[in-house]
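The records we work with from here on pair a chain with its fold. Each token is a code from a learned vocabulary of local backbone shapes. A record is reproduced here so that you can trace the correspondence yourselves:

_____
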Amino acid sequence: MNPILIVEDDKTIALGIQYALKQEGYNTTVCHDYQSAKEIIENNNYILIILDITLPDGNGFDLCNSIRTKKETPVIFLTACDDEVNVVMGLDMGADDYITKPFRVRELISRIKSVLRRYNKHHTNTSEIKIGNITINTKEAKVKKDNEDIILTAMEYKLLLTLANNEGQILTRNQILEGIWDVAGDFVNDNTLTVYIKRLREKIEEDPQNPKIIKTIRGLGYKVGGKDELH
């Protein structure tokens, strides 16, 4: 059935999205406020949620946070606010993509398909990935270091998973950006990626200043070394 939930208080925008998705073969449900969206999410399953940040009785950040405590459903934020802090905060909370208003419907459809493609790819891969002393449980989206849980933000997890799924390969910065957010946009850029790499290293490396897991290949990008390189 491919059900998608649209949470958008502007009824004209919601209707336009609903019509476009129907043309693509998706079934949709529409909510115009925080409370009704929260209730319907608790009682139904969706393949993806399109979530406006500004709602009349709450905000999308809180709703996304609530979703992430119970479900891994992909989330795309819609917002008129394109401030970098808000974008990064939304991605850290677990959003899979971020699109600002006004937007072209075809762009939104493209983003939806990209997010679903990436989500399905991650969930059909092996349920456990080991890199040195790091274990990634992809079914539960949990990471352990020496059998101890590591708390990662959603974006840190996506970054680690993107690198781990390409173990032994050098990934350019653009390839990594496309892996964690298919349409990289203006805000998940080189500077933001550098910050995420630094934060991730601080959590998984024994010595973040001399990383053995996520290696910088100067002039090219980053590489998670093959098993023979991790001692």
